[in-house]
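Researcher: Here's a chain I'd like modeled. Treat it as a single chain, no partners, no ligands.
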Amino acid sequence: MSPLGIGSSDSTYTLTTGEAKLWILLVGVNEYQDEGLPSLRYPALDCQGLGEALSSATQGFPNKEVIVHHDFAAQPPTLQRIRESLQQIVSQSQSQDSILLYFSGHGMLEPNTQQSVLCLADTRQNDLLATGLGMQELVQMLGASPANQQLVCLDTCHSGDMRLLGNRGSARDGYISESSLNSTTQMMDVLRQRAAQSKGFCALLSCDQGQKSWEFPELGHGLFTYYLMQGLLGEAADSHGLIEADRLYKYVYRQTLQYINKLNQQLHFINQQKLERGDSKLHPEYPLQTPKRIVEGVGELIVGFQAAKAESQKARRAVVIDGLSTKKTTTDLSRLFAGAGGFEIDYFPQKGKNWSEIRGTIQGLTRWRGESETKSLSQYGIAKNPPTSLFYLRGHIEEIEDGEAWLILGDGVRLSRSWLRQELRRAQKTQQIIILDLTISDSSVTTSLENWIEDLQCDLEHGQCLIAAATPAEEPELFSQTLLETLVTANPQVGLPVAKWVTQLKTLLQAKGINLHVWLSGTQAVIDILPGNIATIFQDFQGLELPEVEKNKREEKENLLPISPNPHAVVSPSSPVISAPNTNESSVTQQPQLNFSLSSEQYTNLEQLLKQSIGPIASLILQKAVIQAANCQELVKSLGTYLLPQQQKEFEKRAMALLVTSTVSSQHKSAQSLRGEKKTIDANLISKCERELAYSIGPIAHFIITQVLQSQPQISLSEFVNKLAEKISEPKQASEFKRRMLG
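Model: Modeled as a single isolated chain. Structure tokens:
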């Protein structure tokens, strides 16, 4: 595994060779000796998980020291122990060293001096300054260390707004008074003063003023620390594997807000169901948690390096059963579930599988608990995800007089509703998504669907989503096509929670005259139909043969969504399905109406570049994005969100170079020939300029070059280089830059 460390780009080498030392201090407090301070669930586990992640990722650093203080560690998180450890780091660290300090626990405000204090295991409320670690003391100690690179991460209950917990009762009495004293300005000032002293100092806080730092059992950690670990394990890495403090913060910020937003969408939908049933006992939704960052100075702080992204462990399995005459849409849905959905798919019908095996397949999925699949890099659940089971069942339904109902599949296979209910209730440790895609013969099916939804509801620990719709016999693909339409246009990087998905489905299906029946439960974890952070939208089922349509095999093969990029792919305006046109006909990708200038050549080149990363679905995504974008930069940023985090930077760089180069080269061709310039502003020169300029001014070089070319599209080569050289503050470096670029 590649090394992960704290340091500037210059010090990465010294860390890997052992010339510099990495100091890590992890502190977590669950239980407090003062009964007036409420206990917390996860700080110790947060320390253990973060420590294990760092230990695994920094194995390439021969010179490091990890000091851990938490409830389960050999050294308890008392004030004396923490001060001793800090003093050891301060006295022994060198200028080339790096320090990472992490604290998880309570923070309070001392009422007389208005000083913010980190509460340790032996902290007393009535003597905070003497028994707690004051923020002022902490930053003073760090300031005394010669280590140039320092990262402080604070995951407290109110890290952005330390509050005074009153002493009129204890947590064990069930009553804690809380005086809302705004210390945000004071705490921010302390951290900013420290940051102003060193460009290598950065502080990350778990939440903003007046907010809570949430803990979620399904994650096994505090929300902030969970995504901090995921980011350090590679989720926040760029295309080169570097994890900058700025990039890490943005990843944690985005994921924290996204998780709470998804959970609130789910709770909102569940509350609507309750109100429709006359139940006024609603679930409270979670207030926002927005992580904060304190950093001043222009230095670049590298907080990690992962040459290869650590794949998250997504325990997701599905069975897709098409009991009607097999259609292309079902196979496309299966491939999408396997790709963007991250599901391991068991498909029926296909060669080598009999319809008689269906009951056993369903039982295998309902009895599966995802135990082996959910093992992560850590026994503390660093990459923990609730196992998710998906059942897509397509067929006819039949009601009989005794109240029983049957789902009729292929080859005479019949599944009773009571049997299916019994099987679904066996799966207590997984999330469930059940989709019933049915055809109707009479109006009584509406009541029947409601009965199916009612009977199949299970009180699962991690939640359940039931979706059912019936389509006319003459349009059996209407529902499945709508499912595909909503999923294929979703961003596989961001993901799609089922609450948002069913809302979209209801709107679209209502316009098509189809009623959607839905049940959603689960308030402890987010249920995703698309989990996010997925690169492959579609996954090919090579060797998949469908006996029922063997005579149409050639037609099915021609209509399947192509996996490899096809330069002749076109998008049908009425369908999300991409197909290859007749080779005897000339085909040109149709460019939609845009809000800005984009030539046919630029559009085609951009489409091909996007296809290299996400395949043929790029055509549909680009068609949608260009209509919404206001300019080239906004377009490229929008397209970048469909890629993995480590792919985005490289894609944006190449896309902007492609767009700018096409425009600049055409506008400069005649002008430059008149000037007699030997060099032109082409993609190679732009790349060279960015690389050389970045040595002097950092990653902002890319944005400066883009801005200059867009604002002055007819600029000459010498003027272009001079403009860039003006951004270099050191005259000698600026002169050398111009010589290399124009020489």
